[in-house]
Sequence to fold (134 residues):
Amino acid sequence: MSDHRKLVHTERIRVKWGDMDAFGHVNNAAYFVYMQEARVAWFAAVRMPMLENHQGPVIVDAHCTFLRPIVYPAEIEVGLYVGKAGRSSFPTYYDIHLVGDRSVKFAEGNSTVVWIDHMQGKSVPLPDWLRKKL
Fold:
């Protein structure tokens, strides 16, 4: 991981039986939910308003590379990193491991968070308070 990424949050998530697919491992869509749970928990931890002055964060893309299958039962840890902020957006990165065992990475992902004005339907500059947290 390059130096421009900063760890900002770690979220523990218990894998549910319903996360499994017919092949006996966690369904690929669940990984995106895990990344979302970590991101939303970080938003709450930094008290990020989801709709301030009709503005807030949206995800414009999301990617995941599946390295190894996760099987039930498991408790995972999602590490959330942020990268260098742009004018109206910042990248987020995710590493998924089992709790207590960072030696095996099950998946890694990334997404782009864009700050938008919901009334105008377009991006606007990141607020200063958020830029300071990044």
